[in-house]
Amino acid sequence: MVPLKRRKVTSVQDDNQDSKVCKFPEVAIFIVERKMGASRKAFLSRLARSKGFRIEESYSPSTTHVVSESNTGEEVLAWLNNHTEGKALTGSINLLDISWLTESMAEGKPLAIQDRHRLKTSPKPSADPPATTVKSYACQRRTPLKHHNTFLTDALEILAENAEFNENEGRSVAFRRSASVLKALPHVVRGMDDLKNLPCLGEHSVRVIKEILEDGTSSEVESTRQSEQYQAMKALTGVFGVGVKSADRWFREGLRRPLDLIHTGQKLNLAQQAGVQYYNDLNRPVTKREAVAISHIVEKAVNAVLSGAIITLMGGFRRGKEVGHDVDFLITHLEEGAEEGLMPKVLNWLEEQGLLLYQKTTRNSYLESKDGPARPPHNLDRFERCFSIFKLEKGKEGSGTSLNTSYDSGTTEGITGTTEQPGPSWRAVRVDLVVSPFSQFAFATLGWTGSKLFERELRRWAGQEKGMSLSSHALYDSKQQRYLRANSEEEIFAHLGLEYIPPSERNA
Ligand code: UTP
Ligand code: MN
């Protein structure tokens, strides 16, 4: 902070002209020092101001006339680009020779610009593209997996996570959107100037970024990271089957770690029991290699019960991630309806092979005619879906006890191998299986590829910009009052008026 006294003095800058003196306020002139030198620039500035011209100390977006001496247009552009980091240059800027200013001063008023005053630039618009333009919806941008600003995005995502733990969704999404914008930048953020013109950066995020740029860390992020609540909520929600609500209740009761759930005799559902039992394995990242091994198992299982089914790896692995927290699969069949009843058969097969440690299936409950398109953007979709835990053998397949469950009800759930502990020969892996009818396959593919923020932004774009409603089942156009069909993700992007973004660039 500049002390008040000094601030007062320095705020009266010599370019801050009295309106009586400045006769032509609409013409904002910036004199380029390059080649001219500081003393000649100062002399010309004083002279011009004495004649009522508005001379600006630094180049800004409000500058209308850029004047230089003995420079080519290219040189002036390069110089300006350098001094504004490519931010402020607009196509409409007047690059002029000093003769325009001297002649204007002689006339006592800014002259109309003639061709001979103008510095020539090559026809290509500019050597460097003018600044980075970042579109405001994540689904309009390309976000690669690896980016340049993890030191900022990791920090913002801790605050987003913490806001989720406090059930403050608005705040959480705001932090995630800020982080996502930084992920899309083609360069590292070095100073606050780099944030100019970027969308979605709220005041709070900017404050955090500023602190990290200036001090290396943010006190808010560090105190969050160290806080008992954050650490306990992270550990407790890290148990498969435990959501924020249960974790928060347990935290208030004094529980901190997953084992506290056992020691204090909490009543756990089957998912949570499996979650505690396989806690370490399920919190160890799943590698691409393991995902591929699981793919082979799922293919074998599906092919054993239905020929011609199509099995696709979804989620983070489809976006090119090397590790994930689970493995997601979407299963369909070219022949509409052939996929019906597939899930129970696949699970049966897997159980017989001893490959399942836990599974919970929900039946397909989506009926277009009944449900319509409207659903909250973060709602679970309603495909036939199985949340499961696979027993992945490191060597040959092992054997397990088969499940004794019924598939007649809408929901089935079972846990096996309760006495088994992961050992050196196998590990537990979270696997999600989703079955979609072929007519919904493109929507399901788009919906299950992620990232979560990318999906959320797609739905926000559809609703706010297009008057459409997008889900993992369908796209509904409210204006036309009809469903828009699609056989590929490309067609869905086209319906939405968006440029196609491939999965590897949906890492928003
Ligand atoms: P994941 O939670 O598995 O995330 O959801 P991920 O991107 O694969 O990341 P990791 O590596 O596993 O942590 C995968 C996709 O499935 C969608 C999510 O929106 C995400 O795009 N999904 C998930 C649904 O559509 N519905 C759900 O109920 C769950
Ligand atoms: Mn996943």
TrEMBL record:
Keywords, alphabetical: Magnesium, Metal-binding, Nucleotidyltransferase, Nucleus, Transferase
GO CC term, one of those recorded: nucleus
CDD domains: NT_POLXc
InterPro entries listed in its UniProt record: BRCT_dom, BRCT_dom_sf, DNA-dir_DNA_pol_X, DNA/RNApol_mu, DNA_pol_B_palm_palm, DNA_pol_lambd_fingers_domain, DNA_pol_lamdba_lyase_dom_sf, DNA_Pol_thumb_sf
Swiss-Prot/TrEMBL catalytic activity: DNA(n) + a 2'-deoxyribonucleoside 5'-triphosphate = DNA(n+1) + diphosphate
SUPFAM superfamilies assigned: BRCT domain, DNA polymerase beta, N-terminal domain-like, Nucleotidyltransferase, PsbU/PolX domain-like
Occurrences of domain BRCT (ranges): 24-118
Biased composition (Low complexity): 410-420
Region Disordered, residue ranges: 400-423
UniProt keyword Nucleus, yes or no: yes
Biased composition (Polar residues): 400-409
Keyword Metal-binding assigned: yes
Any one GO BP annotation for this protein: double-strand break repair via nonhomologous end joining
Binding-site list for Mg(2+): D326, D328, D432
An MF annotation (GO) of this entry: DNA binding
Annotated localization: Nucleus
Obligatory cofactor(s): Mg(2+)
EC number(s) from the headed UniProt entry: 2.7.7.7
Function: Template-independent DNA polymerase which catalyzes the random addition of deoxynucleoside 5'-triphosphate to the 3'-end of a DNA initiator. One of the in vivo functions of this enzyme is the addition of nucleotides at the junction (N region) of rearranged Ig heavy chain and T-cell receptor gene segments during the maturation of B- and T-cells. Gap-filling polymerase involved in repair of DNA double-strand breaks by non-homologous end joining (NHEJ).
Homology family: Belongs to the DNA polymerase type-X family.
Protein name: DNA-directed DNA/RNA polymerase mu
Organism: Pygocentrus nattereri (Red-bellied piranha)
Gene: POLM
